[in-house]
Amino acid sequence: MNRGASLSQSKDAARLLPALPILSTVDSTPLPSASAATVSFSAPTVGLIEAVPEPIAVRSRRLPPWLKRPIPRSGGMGFTSELIKELGLETICVSGKCPNRSECWTRRTASFMILGDTCTRPCGFCAVKRGRPDAVAQDEPQRLAEACARLGLQYVVITSVTRDDLPDGGASHFKRCVEAVRERTGATVEVLTPDFNGDLTAVDVVLEASPEVFNHNLETVARLQRWVRRKSQYTISLKVLAHAKRARPDLLTKSGLMLGLGETTEEILETLADLRSIGCDLLTLGQYLQPSPKHLPVQRYLPPEEFDELGELARQLGFRDVASGPFVRSSYHADEMAKHAAHAQQQGEATEAVLPSTGGRESG
């Protein structure tokens, strides 16, 4: 099947979708089960991309041309690296083997990872170390705030490993970190949290710190969850995002997907509709890159043009802002997304994210 034609047909299908009932059911109606991918709509049968078998390896590990780019000049990379080392902090940039690290660190930005460097969940896509974590460092909020102040950040992204070993999943530590950063810098804060095993009390603890953006990633479509996220559940993630929006309607909620794991265009649209049905404001779509041979293989490298079309389909569903491209990650130019979303809210319409190559002082 011609994928270009399929995406064109999907675009037509998106125009036929009914208006999605934002937050109309999250208070009382159970969220969808992982076995039922479609929640808010059923896309017309228009010959979308055919079903893809469960994950298999691509034959070649060679990257396509659009995933190759020059290494930026050193600039502030050394400063950022030495500061993070000096203060004993972790970043998802390093632990997650982010392809944007050189660009971001050169601009003296970073996405900070709290609660240690060891995750309690064995996700198939993630490069973060897994195992038994160390005790939580009680002085981490102060060290994090110091780093943000010295980097001059006005937008800070704080994420974490998953800590199923802690009673609250690390929620109280999240709160302390957000409060310390805001007290020291006055920065806007985006949190990228784990699912806290669906404990909404833990979500409320994080929200008590009043972050401006609450981010939690679905990562992939419902069908592939057990291969990609393993111990995490699609329905729980939707529940967490829905609760955050319900508890704080003024809060921007955000989620992201990695593409190239075997999902179909129809499944992507169904997942995006699920997110819109619970009021999710911001969306990121990026290419999955295999961190090592031990991780899930890439099934397909999507060309930039396909990301552009998927981004347009997402905007038709009503997201306030969408960043869609091969190198897009959850926190990549996160401040730009938040600014565009705020502007879109003022204008009463969704706008397209324009990701700059330079400038800004955001962590990401």
List keywords for this structure.
single chain; 364 residues; alpha/beta; 9-stranded mixed sheet; two-stranded parallel ribbon; 12 helices; 11 strands; 35% helix; 12% strand
How does this model look, in words?
With 364 residues, this protein is of the alpha/beta class. It has helices at 3-16, 77-86, 92-95, 101-106, 140-151, 171-185, 200-207, 225-228, 234-247, 265-277, 304-316, 334-347, and strands at 90-91, 112-114, 118-119, 129-130, 155-160, 188-192, 213-215, 252-259, 282-287, 321-324, 351-352. It has a nine-stranded mixed sheet, sandwiched between helices. The chain has a two-stranded parallel ribbon with strand order 3-4. Helix 7 (200-207) links the parallel strand 6 (188-192) and strand 7 (213-215). Helix 1 (3-16) packs parallel to helix 11 (304-316), helix 5 runs parallel beside helix 6 (171-185) and helix 7 packs across helix 9. The longest helix is centred in the middle third of the chain and has 15 residues, at 171-185.
Sum this structure up briefly:
The chain is of the alpha/beta class.
Q: For the record, give the distance between the C-alpha atoms at the N and C termini, rounded to a whole number.
A: 37 Å
What is the alpha-carbon Rg in Å?
19 Å
Uncertain runs are 15-57, 356-363
- Indicate the proportion of strand residues: 5-15%
The computed structural class is alpha/beta
> Overall pLDDT, averaged?
77
H/E element string? Answer: HHEHHEEEHEHEHEHHEHEHEHE
Helix count, DSSP H or I runs of 4 or more residues: 12
